[in-house]
Amino acid sequence: MSLPLLSIGPAPLALEPLAREVAARTIDPGSDGAVTTFVGLVRNHNLGRRVLYLEYEAYEPLAVRAFERISAEIATRWPWVRLALHHRIGRVDIGEASVVIAAASAHRADAFRACRYAIERVKQIAPIWKREFFDGGDVWIEGATADPEDAAARAEAERVACA
Amino acid sequence: MRVTVRLFARLRDIVGAAELSREVGPDATIGGVWRQLVADFPELARYERSISTAVNADYARMDQAVRDGDDVAFLPPVSGG
């Protein structure tokens, strides 16, 4: 069975199988010029606190829908790009990957842009929450209001991706 | 009619449950379900302007009508990645 391109779950993430999978999912073998990747890691510091580990929670079926939506947005904006994205949930220790993304394209510029766009959109709309456990306590991190129809947020993700 | 309410992250902590079954009026909207919840759990009120919502695992809007048996999720600001 082949690896799903878009998924969320508790298993540790592996970048290389994902990059291989997205590369293999072409209808025109040999036409890709690039696979770009992004790995999000759990960092040992945040806002001056020493972070011990993170716990991720998600509304899993909606998160997969969010990833599908992001993939469709990318297919509209960069028609030749294919996207793969896996996000982890549960406890993730320092230095481990919380998210891995791979984008395949005929040209590297679009693959880089799509990769960046995908992580910006995950942070804007995916129903995923991190709880930070630090020296002396823990706190839910709250970022963006998850509104996939917010055109300004989408435009901002595209601006950052193309900067 | 009855709906299932799903809560995540800090909202779940405030209410003390990930899922609740709630009785709502016949013309209830998602916003109405939320306001009823805030009446029982006033600490939720500060999320009034920052939550988003989903019905039956698809994004929805607060003014959308709910139907009997719907699964209504309230999402605090997200922090994936």
What does this structure look like?
The complex is a heterodimer of chains A (163) and B (81). Chain A has a single domain (6-162), classed as Aldehyde Oxidoreductase, domain 3. Chain A has 163 residues and is of the alpha+beta class. In chain A, helix 2 (60-77) runs antiparallel to helix 3 (108-125). Chain A has helices at 15-24, 60-77, 108-125, 151-162, and strands at 6-9, 34-41, 45-46, 49-58, 82-88, 90-93, 97-105, 128-134, 137-141. Chain B has 81 residues and is of the alpha+beta class. Chain B is 22% helix and 28% strand. Chain B is built from two helices and five strands, in the order βαβαβββ. A five-stranded mixed β-sheet of chain B has the order 2-1-5-3-4. In chain B, a hairpin with a 2-residue loop joins strand 3 and strand 4. The A-B interface holds A 40, 56-59, 61-63, 65, 87, 98-99, 119, 122-131, 140-149 and B 6, 8-10, 13, 50-52, 54, 57-59, 73, 75-81.
Please describe the topology of this protein.
The complex is a heterodimer of chains A (163) and B (81).
Chain A: E1 6-9, H1 15-24, E2 34-41, E3 45-46, E4 49-58, H2 60-77, E5 82-88, E6 90-93, E7 97-105, H3 108-125, E8 128-134, E9 137-141, H4 151-162
Parallel strand pairs in A: 1-5
Antiparallel strand pairs in A: 2-7, 3-4, 4-6, 4-8, 5-7, 8-9
Helix pairs in contact in A: 2-3, 3-4
Chain B: E1 2-7, H1 9-15, E2 19-23, H2 30-40, E3 52-55, E4 58-60, E5 71-75
Parallel strand pairs in B: 1-5
Antiparallel strand pairs in B: 1-2, 3-4, 3-5
Order of helices and strands of chain B: EHEHEEE
Q: Total strand count of chain A, please?
A: 9
Count of separate DSSP helical elements of chain B: 2
Strand residue percentage of chain B: 25-35%
Secondary structure class of chain A reads alpha+beta
CATH class of chain B: Alpha Beta
Order of helices and strands of chain A: EHEEEHEEEHEEH
User: What is the radius of gyration of chain B?
Assistant: 12 Å
How helix-rich are the residues of chain A, as a percent range? 25-40%
Instruction: Name the CATH class of chain A.
Output: Alpha Beta
Overall tally of domains of chain B: 1
Hey, which two chains have the biggest interface?
A: A-B, 33 and 20 residues
The CATH architecture assignment of chain A turns out to be: Alpha-Beta Complex
Q: State the major sheet of chain B.
A: 5 strands, mixed
Structural class of chain B: alpha+beta
How is the CATH topology of chain A named? Aldehyde Oxidoreductase, domain 3
Provide mean pLDDT of chain B, rounded.
97
Quaternary form: heterodimer
